[in-house]
Amino acid sequence: MPTRILPAGADPDAVRSLVTLLSQLPDAEPQPPVGDSTQLVDTLAHLAAESVDELPEVVVVHERIGPVPALELIREVALRFPAVGVILVTTDASPGLFAAAMDSGARGLVALPLSYEELASRVQAVAQWSTGVRRHLGHGADVFGGVGGTVVTVSGAKGGTGATLAAIQLALAAQASGRPTALVDLDLQTGDIASYLDIQFRRSVVDLAAITDISPRVLADAVFRHDTGLVLLLAPAEGERGEEVTDRAARQIVSVLRSRYEVVVVDCGAQLGGAGAAVVEMADTALLVTTPDVISVRAAKRTVRMWDRLQIRKAEETTVVVNRHSRHTEIQPALVQRITGTALARTTVPANFKELQSVVDAGRVHELDGRSSVKQALWALAGELGLVKAGEGGHRGGPGRGTVGFRRRKE
Questions:
Q1: DSSP 8-class letter at 141
Q2: Interval 174-189: pLDDT, tens
Q3: What CA–CA distance (Å, rounded) separates 351 from 185?
Q4: Which residues contact 385 (CB under 8 A, 6 or more apart)?
Q5: What average pLDDT does the segment 290-300 reach?
Q6: CA 172 to the chain's CA centroid
Q7: For the whole model, what pTM was predicted?
């Protein structure tokens, strides 16, 4: 059986040379190369959604891939696709880099300039390892549900649009439907999830930031288990400590969470930092919450354009959610979609703060009455996004407008 090999790199000349050499290997079947980290992860996720057997045995990552650095990308691939063997191609074949690559989950390292014999030997060994892992684990879907959980980020177009409340209710809906769910507060300086749920905590996301290998025990010590069943990873009580959470740390933390939970909801707040940008980039679904007023919609447009300029997220890959919607407002969801150029959630959240005031003031938003129109809308949104098991966990929403939001990988 031929060995399927997926090359990945941003340098066209280097990738062309790599593909040429790979095509000369015996029983090798090079796949069309991918040019960046996002495309690589999306390609693997798409193949895994079809069938685990569709995944390539070997992925060859060139050191100059981006925007996610090569070692961080290898770590994510190893966590999400554990039976895919990754080889790093690099000019630095030092013992230090070799050790770092192995720690990240690579199965081999090949030095540049490429040598046919070295590449052939490494590909063959990694392909045998991958085949052995698949044979040992079997091909059942339950083994490889395996590609990792769904990551949804919730960002505010500006402060006060209701992103945190939306994130909490989406997570509650997923958990209530029977899907193990983690809720992460990545609004590092002004995160309010702990206040909304009236909890006291000692550990936060900062406690994981400096750890290079997050074990299940370390993760369990850092999270807070809420009475609802939600697993919470909270923002630090001291906002200045948020700077300790780098983009690299954020990617690793969310990758570990998605490997252990079916749904990971991340509140990214309204301010863009390196950590939040990294998670929005890697998310399966990125929500941007706005209210139907000129200031918020302009802010949403600015955010979408900034994400696009920074190559974090394309406009069409971002889903806008309209909060505090009313038929009497001049700005309606269809207009928001035209202005921002994004996808638009069919479900809108009604303007009815009176329903929320008592639970917000008490810090008990998880006790919001099931008859609340706001809760029904947000749980319907969870159903629209595929966060709840079919037939459970959500209330049916009314007729919506717009298009279905873009999702980066199939469930």
A1: T
A2: 999 999 999 999 999 9
A3: 24
A4: 152, 170, 285, 345, 405, 407
A5: 97
A6: 18
A7: 0.69
